From TrEMBL:
It comes from Dyella jiangningensis. This is TonB-dependent receptor. Residues 78-194 form the TonB-dependent receptor plug domain. Residues 426-917 form the TonB-dependent receptor-like beta-barrel domain. Pfam families: Plug, TonB_dep_Rec_b-barrel. The keyword Signal applies. Its main location: membrane. It is found in: Cell outer membrane.
Length: 957
């Protein structure tokens, strides 16, 4: 008989083992349910060779398996906690190519999840998973059951996480997804669950895979190579060694290769807003520019220009072929060049190159002990393009009213100012051609070495390991204007606005120098684990597991803009280090043949904030063979990140529209139109960990052998949520002229040049991190699997996997409540993707002889354009008419279908292919998502990519 890890499990030989076999019959027959995943198509045994004849030693005992979420090896793979297992065979049949793709396809991944395509975020170039929608910092990612170093940049400048792009997929044996709190064993951050990537313990033979793929609509061509070679038999030779290599290059996908409404910011034809570049009233300049006769409200200050009475804008230089001259726009008197910079210059997906090496050497120290040494190096480079930078920027220095002087510093007439001869200033609206605002070239390096010894001695099974993990991220950012150089160029006429091609490379480099830095993280750990059977109980032997570990964590992420010299870029630096000590234990008590009780607990001590205790209790009851009932209660915690309690601060920006009465006080002019509002949050050394309580309760049913079903309810309550002060409360107090909440401040802009007596608009909201909120989320996971073998040639496996969120509520310090499920909130979180109520997948695999075909549907429910954490009502409106856009204030659901297949010519050669998003379904319109243009990249990425073809060949030695 085969276990889920492919090892042989022989039939019991003693009466006690016969009792154990009867007790575990349902668990073993239902293992297929927990091996299934959102991308699962076949069971782990599909390609396993026939089991080897058992040895005498094997014949005397049941084979045990270590399951994520338990410290004890066990025959019964079904624990009180819900665990989904994704095998290497399932990953291959899903058509998904990276650990990131596989993990983020899990239905329990929700709001706060980070896609690589979000290159404008704080953690640009990375990918992270957020189980239960509790953000990436509440899901613990392990490799072989042990921690890894975090990505060197924090999401939103606050949340730390493991970058899924730097985990080898070619060496994966399986991925365990524990959808339950697990701080009682693993410590901090396992509030929402654990993703444990388990790599192959050994490999013998060789195989190579080459494939290529491309999108039907252009861009995204993928080339991929994988190689795996190993030798040595651990039992016969006393050693095994293997090496895995993988390389993947993904070309960029350009927005201009996709159709309306994704390739433009002008949605006026369907009732939306026209945000096309070039409009002076929106401070959106074209590369051809406009100028308006003006005067200064503050003599000598070139950033205080206002139009002369009755003055209208005129084009600075003739419009080019990539723009359209507009002269009849009532919102922009005069003329301008409408230029679709977003559609022309931005990307759907960046160019990405991944290179990875992984090797492992295992040696047998004796009959009861083995030692291993593994090492991996992964490099992931992400390159993105972007729109030209605007001369008008609100932060850190406000240049929205910047003007060209009539005379230069040497007294000569300014050749860039067409009104110079009349002695007039020129209010300029302009985008700099040849530059790309916020383009990146980031390369993440991840070096990880692990060494360990495991075995059996004195009645104990033991496992000890040392892990050294260092990452370094080389960051290059382009297209940010240096404020002082900009003022100098305007004052001295150094930059040629009339003929930009005449500007030298030196002029451009000085105006927009490359911003670069190297950020690092470290995670070094040593641990010891042991387990054994104690005494016999009515249901079997009691099991005990204990462990102790120590780790050192550090992060050094310096500021990219330390002196605030770069326009449009705030500050973000995270520096910290700490030591963590932990001890834990677990007891499994089979009280009856049908009832198991599991108790565990952990004590952690952190050098920066103190100690924490995390208990957990679980049960599993099987009153009859076809039914199991299970449940857990646990307390967990999330340790403050270095961004929250170290020497750290960060500033992010969100497009913000002031209240209507504030706009009216300023005559609804350009000063109060939507603009970037900064949120500066600083670390608080007195911050405490977030605490959680979570419950799960579920049933597992197998009415007959081919069909199995599990339903698991979860409820998570988190208190002391670390956050900055509620920005809406700060802004409300500012507009009302009331005292601001504690630990907050507002930085006001320069006065409105047209209405200098009116209250200035806020440009930065400042606050410390505090433990002030609490949240609650609950929902239901469902897994339904059927495995039907009709004869030796035909087999059909069908699996439905779904997560339904009932509630996701945030409770603020003032007693108010924000309900996010089914909305676009939390909007200020990560990519602002929202919290869909339902995510599901349905996979069907048909196998006939050497042919395997799999079809998988993925579904994500729609969301309203309500953003509870920013404002009430519909957040997506036509800013001119005030009408909701779209009228129902709702984003439609997303459904895609992937088709994959493979054919084995013989035992050495096979071909495979896939058509991802086979029906070419487009993503629903999402005009308020700031991570992409009019679509949601977190849930609708496959839709915007469109139908994608892939073809490859695998050769085995």
């Amino acid at each position: 008989m085969q276990c889920r890890d492919g090892r042989t499990r022989v039939l019991p030989q003693t009466p006690q083992e016969e009792i154990a076999m009867k007790r575990n019959k349902l668990a073993l027959s239902l293992a297929a349910l927990f091996v299934a995943s959102t991308s699962a198509t076949v069971s782990a045994q599909d390609n396993n060779p026939p089991p080897a004849a058992p040895s005498d030693q094997q014949a005397k005992q049941l084979q045990t398996i270590t399951v994520t979420g338990s410290a004890l090896p066990r025959v019964d793979v079904e624990t009180p906690s819900p665990v989904t297992v994704i095998t290497a065979a399932q990953i291959e049949r899903s058509g998904l190519k990276t650990v990131s793709d596989v993990v983020r396809a899990i239905s329990a991944d929700n709001s706060g999840s980070i896609p690589t395509a979000f290159t404008a975020g704080f953690a640009a170039g990375s990918s992270g998973v957020a189980l239960r929608g509790l953000t990436v910092n509440s899901t613990l990612v392990l490799i072989d059951g042990r921690r890894s170093a975090n990505y060197a940049l924090a999401d939103d400048g606050q949340r730390t996480f493991v970058d899924l792009n730097t985990i080898p997929v070619n060496a994966v044996e399986r991925i365990d997804v524990l959808k339950d709190g697990a701080s009682s064993l693993y410590g901090a951050d396992a509030i929402a669950g654990v993703v444990n990537i388990i790599l192959k313990p050994s490999y013998k033979g060789g195989e190579a895979t080459a494939e290529i793929g491309t999108s039907q609509h252009g861009g995204g061509t993928t080339t991929r190579f994988e190689g795996l070679i190993g030798g040595g038999d651990l039992d016969k030779d006393g050693h095994n060694a293997y090496i895995s290599v993988e390389y993947q290059k993904d070309d960029q996908i350009k927005l201009k290769d996709r159709g309306f409404p994704y390739n433009t910011t002008d949605l006026s034809s369907i009732g939306g807003n026209n945000l096309i570049q070039g409009q002076p009233s929106l401070n959106l300049g074209s590369t051809y520019g406009t100028v308006t006769p003006a005067m200064l409200t503050r003599p000598g200050d070139l950033t205080s220009g206002v139009p002369l009475p009755g003055a209208v804008a005129q084009i600075l230089r003739p419009c080019g072929s990539d723009s359209t001259q507009v002269t009849n726009d009532p919102n922009n008197p005069g003329s301008y060049c409408a230029q679709n910079q977003t559609g022309q210059d931005t990307q759907i997906a960046p160019e990405q190159q991944r290179l990875g090496l992984y090797g492992r050497f295992t040696v047998k120290l004796g009959d009861d002990a083995t030692a291993y040494l593994s090492a991996s190096y992964f490099q992931n480079e992400v390159q993105s393009t972007a729109v030209p930078p605007q001369i008008q920027t609100s932060t850190p220095k406000n240049t929205n009213a910047i003007t060209l002087p009539p005379t230069l510093a040497d007294g000569s007439l300014n050749p860039n100012n067409p009104f110079a001869a009349q002695g007039q200033y020129a209010l300029i609206n302009y985008a700099f051609p040849g530059l790309q605002f916020g383009a990146i070239d980031d390369t993440n390096h991840n070096l990880r070495v692990a060494a360990g010894v495991k075995g059996h001695a004195w009645g104990w099974d033991y496992d000890s390991a040392l892990v050294i993990n260092h990452t370094w991220l080389d960051i290059n950012n382009y297209g940010y204007l240096n404020y002082n150089q900009l003022i100098s160029d305007i004052t001295n006429g150094t930059y040629n606005f009339i003929n930009p091609s005449a500007n030298s490379g030196a002029t451009m480099a000085a105006l927009s120098p490359t911003l670069n830095k190297t950020s690092t993280t470290d995670m070094d750990s040593i641990d010891f684990r042991a387990s054994r059977e104690l005494w016999e109980m009515d249901g079997g032997p009691m099991g005990l597991g204990v462990g102790a570990d120590f780790r050192h964590e550090a992060q050094h992420d310096p500021d990219l803009n330390p002196d605030l010299a770069a326009q449009g870029l705030g500050i973000a630096h995270t520096i910290g280090k700490r030591n963590v000590y932990g001890v834990y234990g677990e007891v499994v008590m089979p009280l009856l043949q049908s009832l198991e009780l599991d108790l565990s607990g952990r004590y952690d001590h952190y050098s920066d904030f103190g100690s924490n205790v995390s208990p957990k209790a679980g049960f599993k009851w099987k009153p009859i063979d076809m039914l199991a009932i299970r449940g857990t209660y646990s307390q967990g915690f999330r340790a403050p990140s270095f961004a929250e309690n170290g020497s750290s601060a960060s500033e992010g920006f969100t497009t913000y529209t002031p209240p209507s009465d504030f706009q009216a006080a300023h005559g609804n002019n350009g000063y109060v139109q939507p603009y970037p509002l900064g949120f500066l949050t600083a670390a608080n050394p007195n911050i405490k960990p977030e605490k959680s309580e979570s419950y799960t309760f579920g049933i597992v049913i197998q009415p007959w052998q081919p069909i199995s079903l599990s339903l698991d309810y979860y409820d998570i309550k988190k208190s002391g949520v670390i956050t900055a002060a509620d920005s809406s409360a700060v802004l409300d107090a500012y507009y009302a002229g009331l005292p601001l909440p504690p630990n907050t401040a507002v930085v006001a802009d320069n006065p409105d040049p047209q209405n200098p007596a009116a209250l200035p608009r806020p440009i930065v909201v400042e606050a410390l991190y505090v433990n002030e909120n609490r949240l609650e989320t609950n929902g239901l996971d469902a897994d339904l699997r059927g495995d039907f073998k009709f004869n030796d040639d035909w087999r059909w496996i069908s699996e439905l996997n779904a997560t339904q969120i009932f509630e996701w509520n945030l409770y603020l310090q003032d007693g108010s409540e924000q309900r996010f499920v089914g909305t676009h909130g939390p909007y200020q979180l990560s990519s602002g993707a929202g919290t869909p109520r339902t995510r599901a997948s349905w996979a069907n695999t048909v196998m006939w002889k050497a042919l395997t075909v799999t079809g998988t549907f993925y579904y994500t429910s729609g969301e309203s354009f309500v953003v509870p954490d920013v404002s009430s009502g519909c957040f997506s409106t036509n800013t001119i008419t005030g009408a909701n856009f779209p009228a129902d204030c709702h984003m439609s659901s997303i459904t895609t279908f992937d088709l994959t297949g493979s054919y084995d010519f013989n035992e050495h050669v096979s071909v495979f292919g896939s058509i991802m998003n086979a029906f070419d379904r487009k993503p629903p319109l999402d005009p308020i998502n700031y991570a992409a243009n009019n679509y949601n990249p977190t849930y609708g990425y496959s839709g915007i990519v469109g139908r994608f073809f892939n073809l490859g060949v695998k050769v085995k030695m």
